[in-house]
């Protein structure tokens, strides 16, 4: 999953890829890929191993904002999920148009054309990079169209569902 992390006045792209057996492969700002293993040990404390070197990380998350303490450094910032940002891009969320930001395959469609849906209701599930991503309705309305079906491969920026406001 790709994130845009804002710290101070700057932003950096962070890519997090889960690996089989636990842990993650993480790249920050397009730099070298690091192997990271993170395990919670309390409500706001984690043991984090970065390329085998262990650290204690204090982490408090509130919505998109976080406060972290690592090796004596306080870090405050925001994290923007690329999936949510793509839904909001160009007002698509307000119009009820739901698009995928990544290539993948549609694995589940729990709604049908003509069905009334509520904001936040799951409309389509797309598998990408061995992870299932739920795409939810950005508005209350009625499913107007659904161009793709289960089993269909989709490219980035493909319209998955259009919801007409009610």
Outline the structure in words.
The protein is mainly beta. The chain folds into 2 domains: 2-81, Glycoprotein, Type 4 Pilin; 96-165, OB fold (Dihydrolipoamide Acetyltransferase, E2P), CATH 2.40.50.100. Helix content is 7%, strand content 59%. The protein is built from 2 helices and 16 strands. An 8-stranded antiparallel barrel has the order 1-2-3-4-5-6-7-8. It has a 4-stranded antiparallel β-sheet with strand order 9-16-14-11. A 4-stranded antiparallel β-sheet has the order 13-12-10-15, with no helix packed on it. It starts with a strand and ends with a strand.
Briefly say what this structure is.
By secondary structure, this protein is mainly beta.
Strand content: over 45%
Q: In the CATH scheme, what's the topology name of the largest domain? A: Glycoprotein, Type 4 Pilin
Give the biggest sheet: 8 strands, antiparallel, barrel
Return residue spans where pLDDT drops below 50 for at least 5 consecutive residues. Answer: 89-93
CATH architecture of the largest domain: 2-Layer Sandwich
Give the helices and strands as they follow along the chain: EEEEEEEEHHEEEEEEEE
The share of residues in helices is: under 10%
Q: Mean pLDDT, as a whole number?
A: 84
Total number of helices: 2
End-to-end Cα distance: 32 Å
Find the structural class using helix and strand composition.
mainly beta
Number of domains as seen in the coordinates: 2
Question: What is the 3D form?
Answer: elongated
Task: Give, in spatial order, the strands making up the sheet with the most strands.
Answer: 1-2-3-4-5-6-7-8
Look at the structure and give the CATH class of the largest domain. Answer: Alpha Beta
Tell me the radius of gyration. 18 Å
Number of strands: 16
């Amino acid at each position: 999953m790709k994130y845009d992390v804002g710290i101070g006045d700057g932003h950096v792209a962070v890519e997090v890829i889960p690996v089989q057996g636990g842990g993650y492969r993480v790249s920050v700002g397009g730099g070298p890929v690091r192997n990271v293993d993170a395990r919670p040990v309390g409500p706001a404390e984690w043991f984090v191993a970065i390329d085998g070197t262990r650290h204690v990380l204090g982490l408090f998350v509130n919505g998109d904002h976080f406060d972290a303490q690592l090796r004596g450094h306080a870090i405050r910032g925001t994290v923007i999920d690329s999936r949510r940002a793509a839904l909001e891009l160009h007002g698509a969320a307000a119009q009820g148009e739901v698009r995928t930001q990544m290539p993948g395959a549609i694995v589940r469609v729990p709604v049908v054309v003509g069905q009334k849906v509520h904001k936040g209701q799951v409309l389509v599930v797309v598998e990408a990079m061995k992870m299932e991503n739920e795409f939810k309705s950005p508005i209350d309305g009625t499913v107007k169209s659904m161009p793709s079906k289960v089993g269909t491969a989709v490219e980035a920026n493909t319209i998955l569902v259009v919801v007409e406001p009610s």
